[in-house]
Design brief:
9 helices; 5-stranded mixed sheet
Length: 229
Amino acid sequence: MICNLFVFRHAETTDNSNHIFSGWRDPDLTPKGLFQAQEIAQQLEQEKIDYAFTSHLLRAKRTLEIVLKPHLNVPVFTDDRLIERCYGTLQGRSKIEIATEKPEWFAKVHRGYDLAPPEGESLKMVESRTLPFVVQLERWLKQKPGNVAISCHGNSMRPIRRVFEHLNLKQMLELENPQDQAMEYALHIHGINVNQVAEAKPETDWKSVIVPSFVKLATDPQNPLKPYY
């Protein structure tokens, strides 16, 4: 059986338009962002969507809500393994100002793999929490096959694309994820038990990870994503 995955980045936010490091901040969509989300919705309007996943952040949730408007009764699961990269003490600061002040350091932090900003996450850390989500999703779909919409973020989308597009590290780091288009992937599922599929209750058994609102930095001792690092 083939399950189709529709993976997209949230639409433009106020932080995006102002070139602000957003990370775990929670800005809303701009008018342009609302239009971009509608573009994704139109792209997927005729597709069958059985399940949807998002982080808890408003920009991912609102984008998904717009995308799902033509689709009725789609179970939505919140899982912060999909959340944007935590930029630590850079969150809320201007990318332009930091790039001007420390151009070499900015380039290594912004598009590097191993270097984390102060109290934030490296892209390697983001990948280490996003890939277990993909593995769990594949196992879960073996019991409950269906098509999946995934509303994620620019940096959590990179490892997902790396898996399904067979990218090397350099190619992943160079990706620029659009905010008005879904990527479509076919996931081949084997070993399906038809009786188990018929009896499944997917609304109750997805094991998600949620970052509480009081956790602001990746280094917070109460950050539930720490075991993945």
